[in-house]
Design brief:
Layout lengths: L16 E5 L5 E4 L4 E7 L12 E2 L5 E2 L11 E10 L2 E9 L9 E7 L6 E2 L8 H7 L4 E11 L4 E14 L5 E13 L6 E2 L9 E7 L5 E6 L15 E6 L5 E8 L9 E8 L2 E10 L20 E9 L5 E2 L20 E10 L2 E9 L22 E8 L9 E6 L2 E3 L5 E4 L5 E11 L2 E12 L1
Parallel strand pairs: 2-29
Antiparallel strand pairs: 1-3, 3-27, 4-24, 5-24, 6-7, 7-8, 8-9, 10-11, 11-12, 12-13, 14-15, 15-16, 16-17, 18-19, 19-20, 20-21, 22-23, 23-24, 25-26, 25-28, 28-29
């Protein structure tokens, strides 16, 4: 339950819309039909000082429980948002050999964030779609999706390979990854930009600022660095006016403490600043074994898990413990006993939810029919779920005001039911305000006869 307080909320807590329903450029309905419109706002809470995550014993989606043949070898990289009153997940999967595989994009929805229904039209973006859109990359990876409230559309940034070269023994010679971009009216049908939008990059996480600009954190290879694996040792901050043309601002995070890499950054706003989770290869749990650059695909000699950081401005990151905040499961029969990876955190009322990729202790990889695959390699096969309780405060200064076609309405909650007997174009606005600021969203409704 939210904590009741008579205090004014801190200055950093302004109404920020985190989800709306329904989404889309415009909403079509018939005369007399009723549609429920709703907004969700970020709760007044901050991360606890100690992140005591409670993990779920079974994966929420996995090659072992998928109902679809295209995702039976690898299944990982979850990205989750709230929209249309449900949780929506985009993830990466394949039915072919790993590394480098022909990875495709899947989509699923959930009422509770735990039990997921896979979209029957999966995969929704394939490697062939990347080729058809411009031919600049393959091996779809690391989707990051947000719903742009101002533009009424879904935006996605993703990674793809543009160069891959290795010796006959599997040693990496050259690898180039870049960030791509796509847009969608519904999160399912995507229009892919024909060119990459960064010089180097993988696993972008993007926030839209109040002034309409965009901030990205992503792994990137420094200019002039000849080591292809250096992309795993640098998290860069980039900024953009439109989400497509990016300027690299700073190299903000490098490996620290026991970690020999810093990979898969995920950033959220929290309190007056930002919180980040990222993965890292680290010394073996069996002793002081140094991580070898260029051997990141060695399934047997390294361990990988998640750590955290905080920042006031997104540039300078502090409170980095140099220790795991979410290590592999101590139960070595568990689905997440070897790797916990690719973090994605949702801030929900009274809790935070972590979605992550997981590897079990399987040596090698399994083909779609369940038999061992040939050669070296491994496959992420599971998506895990963990939760973290937080103290949510009640903001007594918060208020909602609805208007339909510029006429005010008495409804003062976050939900409004709209219907009309007048055909044509209608606009319904929800205005949210507290002691520190305000936010608003307007739906465009097309009412037909």
């Amino acid at each position: 339950m939210p904590i009741e307080t008579s205090e004014k909320p801190p200055q950093w807590y302004v109404p920020r819309i985190s989800a709306i329903s329904p989404t889309g450029p415009e909403i079509a309905l018939a005369v007399g039909e009723t549609v429920a419109l709703s907004v969700e706002i970020e709760p007044w809470q901050t991360l606890p000082a100690e992140q005591a995550w409670q993990r779920r014993a079974e994966p929420v989606l996995s090659t072992t429980n998928t109902t679809q043949d295209w995702s039976r070898v690898m299944l990982y990289m979850p990205r989750v948002i709230r929209a249309d009153g449900v949780c929506k997940m985009w993830y990466v999967a394949t039915s072919g050999p790993p590394r480098p595989a022909n990875c495709h994009l899947g989509y699923a929805t959930s009422e509770d964030g735990i039990h997921w229904e896979e979209y029957p039209g999966n995969p929704i973006v394939t490697d062939q779609d990347l080729q058809d859109a411009g031919g600049w990359g393959w091996c779809f990876q690391s989707p990051f999706v947000l719903y742009d409230l101002a533009e009424r559309k879904y935006r996605m940034w993703f990674s793809a390979l543009t160069h891959w070269e290795q010796t006959q023994d599997g040693e990496l010679v050259e690898m180039t990854q870049q960030v791509g971009y796509a847009e969608s009216p519904d999160g399912i049908a995507w229009d892919i930009h024909p060119e990459p939008v960064t010089r180097s990059g993988r696993c972008a996480t993007v926030l839209k600022e109040a002034d309409g600009t965009f901030t990205m954190w992503a792994n990137a290879r420094p200019d002039g660095d000849p080591d292809p694996s250096s992309i795993y040792g640098h998290i860069m901050l980039l900024r953009s006016s439109d989400g497509i043309h990016w300027e690299q601002i700073a190299d903000v995070i490098q490996p620290e403490g026991i970690y020999k890499s810093c990979v898969y950054p995920h950033v959220i706003r929290d309190g007056p600043g930002f919180a980040m989770w990222h993965g890292g290869h680290r010394e073996s749990l069996r002793g002081d074994v140094e991580f070898a650059r260029g051997q990141l695909d060695d399934a047997y000699g390294d361990w990988f898990d998640l750590t955290t950081a905080r920042s006031a401005d997104g540039l300078a990151w502090t409170d980095r413990p140099g220790l795991p905040v979410f290590p592999p499961n101590v139960d070595k029969s568990a689905f997440d006993a070897r790797y916990t990876s690719t973090p994605h955190v949702l801030k929900l009322p009274g809790r935070y939810v972590l979605y992550y990729s997981a590897r079990d202790m399987l040596e090698g990889w399994l083909q779609a029919d369940g038999t061992p695959g040939p050669g070296r390699g491994f496959a992420y096969r599971h998506i895990g779920y963990a939760s973290l309780e937080a103290e949510e405060h009640t903001d007594t200064t918060l208020s909602y005001a609805w208007s339909a076609n510029e006429m005010s309405n008495a409804e003062r909650s976050g939900t409004f039911r709209f219907s009309t007997r007048e055909p044509g174009t209608h606009h319904v606005t929800c205005q949210i305000q507290n002691a520190n600021g305000s936010a608003a969203y307007t739906w465009k409704l097309i009412v037909g006869n």
